[in-house]
Amino acid sequence: MNYLNETIDSLNDKLKSGAVSADQLAKDTIANIKKTDEKINAFITVDEDAKPAEDLDFNNKLAGVPIAIKDNIITNGLKTTAASHILYNFEPVYESTVVAKLKAAQATIIGKTNMDEFAMGSSTETSYFGDTKNPWNLNKVPGGSSGGSAAAVASGEVVAALGSDTGGSIRQPASFNGIFGIKPTYGRVSRWGLIAFASSLDQIGVMSKRVKDSAEVLNVIAGADDRDATVSEKEVPDYTSFLDKDVKGLRVAVPKEYMSDAVEEGVRKAVEAQIELLRANGAIINEVSLPHTKYVVPTYYIIASSEASANLERYDGIRYGYRAEAKNLDEVFLKSRSEGFGDEVKRRIMLGSFALSAGAYDKFFLQAAKVRTLICQDFDKIFEDNDVIVGPVSTETAFDLNSEISDQIKMYNNDILTISANMAGIPAASVPAGLSETTGMPVGFQIMAKRFDEGHVFQVADFIERSNKFYEQTPAGLED
Ligand SMILES: NC(=O)C[C@H](N)C(=O)O
């Protein structure tokens, strides 16, 4: 079964009418993943025994629908590695809240997708389990860190997948693969069972080819959870109620810093075309400024690495995961961590430990925390007179495999347009804007809104999807 021309609604119809059984759907999905993954390596683990829930109730839109999960989200009894050697054999004995909610809605969990190790990266090239390839061009990266989820959706292996986004990890791969991806408001979706990278920034979200599919999955996974005190008790609206609307009178802010010369021409043109589309349909376009944009990359990498250095202390070779051969206890810690973590993870642990150390704390961590407040204030100010902020997701389209991974500064700078939404905790999405005239690869259009205003994000994304119909295009890299 390939999902390129399916939606959750079309699958629900087929299952309801008996045109296909949920058992058969799971089997066909696994067979297709195995075939497609020979080319793209989107999955770390496929659950060969995946079975639909019993007594399916097709009033649940997700009943019997196979869904893929990023491999940093805990799945009870199904290997969860965060794409790291240090967790290469880790089989959790509990369930993450999002997966428990998907199972309660009777979705079939089909497997775990590839990613950058512990979500640290923007190309899925830091995975211990090999690179994922971009279905639009197999010589290009799928982006990251949720590159496996994005490639799985873009190639039609699944209709929807969960990802996580700390500094752009859902939106950037969604943009590189020509699909939709949404990072909800910080506190909208429980992080219980998400393997922590930077706890004040991490958020679980959804990736799918079509906007409505993500709205339907978010309906299921959002909402309060006793196990995560950072999740809001706010009622979860029906996100599909924001679809099929026009954009007349909508106040749309375009930050001038997001349309600078640093943005590749093909990306800028595709993004400008969507802005013109909104204008032509009655939206009010306002040029605005996010003056602290030039500080977001260093601020993010100090905060995220500091939190990571503390969160990753738990991997000690004793309790779970990889344990190196050693002569004494000190050596167990030292060798397990040295051999278990990859270079990028070690780099961030060292950077973060330094930023938190006695002599450096005030100058780095504290300073970064203060700048973060200024970044948040930039957004609050714009949202006083605007409903959404739009612009590109990334300064470029998917780049060649092995072309940027050894240049950390370049890799980090690539995140400049996505990181701020995490620092401000606001919802943000990427919706396809077409193919770049210069590279022929997909371009993503970013939409951000106030905290807990996913509604406006869905409204604009759905409007753009209906207008440019990018979903009619199929990824060229998979043709034989
Ligand atoms: N995790 C993310 O959201 C991706 C970001 N590029 C990082 O490496 O931190």
Task: Please render the helix and strand layout as text.
Layout: H1 8-17, H2 22-40, E1 43-46, E2 66-70, H3 97-104, E3 108-113, H4 147-154, E4 160-165, H5 171-176, E5 180-183, E6 203-208, H6 211-221, E7 251-255, H7 265-280, E8 284-288, H8 296-311, H9 329-340, H10 343-356, H11 362-385, E9 388-392, H12 408-413, H13 419-424, E10 428-435, E11 442-449, H14 454-468
Parallel strand pairs: 2-3, 2-4, 7-8, 7-9
Antiparallel strand pairs: 1-3, 4-6, 5-6, 5-10, 9-11, 10-11
Helix pairs in contact: 8-10, 8-11
Strand content: 5-15%
What small ligands are held by the chains?
asparagine
Superfamily (CATH H level) name: Amidase signature (AS) domain
Quickly give the structural class. Answer: alpha/beta
GO molecular function: ATP binding; glutaminyl-tRNA synthase (glutamine-hydrolyzing) activity
Active site: 70, 145, 169
Family: Belongs to the amidase family. GatA subfamily.
InterPro entries: Amidase, Amidase_CS, Amidase_dom, AS_sf, GatA
Give structural notes.
Helix content is 36%, strand content 13%. The mean pLDDT is 97. It is α/β, with parallel strands linked by helices. Strand 2, helix 3 and strand 3 (108-113) form a beta-alpha-beta unit. It has helices spanning 8-17, 22-40, 97-104, 147-154, 171-176, 211-221, 265-280, 296-311, 329-340, 343-356, 362-385, 408-413, 419-424, 454-468, and strands at residues 43-46, 66-70, 108-113, 160-165, 180-183, 203-208, 251-255, 284-288, 388-392, 428-435, 442-449. It has a single domain (8-252, 384-478), classed as Amidase signature (AS) domain (Amidase signature (AS) enzymes, Alpha-Beta Complex), CATH 3.90.1300.10. It has an eleven-stranded mixed β-sheet, with helices on both faces. The longest helix is centred in the last third of the chain and has 24 residues, at 362-385. It has 14 helices and eleven strands. It binds asparagine. The site of asparagine has 12 residues, from loops.
